[in-house]
Amino acid sequence: MVYTYRNRETLRDDDFRHFRAKLNDLFEALQTQRLYARQNFSCCGSCASYELSEKLRASQTKRTPKLGFVTYNRQDNQNVPYGYVYLGYSSIGEAEEDRELGRLIVDTATRVGLATEWDGNINSKVRVIAPCKASPIKNPNPTLEVAV
Q: How far apart are CA 47 and CA 64, in angstroms?
């Protein structure tokens, strides 16, 4: 099956499944780094940041506190069929710790086989891009819209 929506390019089925698997690998690897790593978490970025910030603060009283969080929310999840997703993140520390967390996300994504785009700015999300084996396809009939 090919997903098309409003004439945007989408991934082929095997590329879509491969991208999902790689995202799972990325988030599993990030969880081993003492991070809260959540996929398709909460309704939006604001709610996800609030909920994970609260969990992060609460973890500071535990024996092994978490160092930060990384997530994409349900709104961001809508971009996955198009071959990318934006990851929000935050650390418990200051700006430099946030920058280090961004670098960690980029390095971990690269290690599991995903491409990234990030300008090093702590106010910018990290864009993770699907490692497509085939090029995305365009909707052959722009008037036909299939909701994904």
A: 25
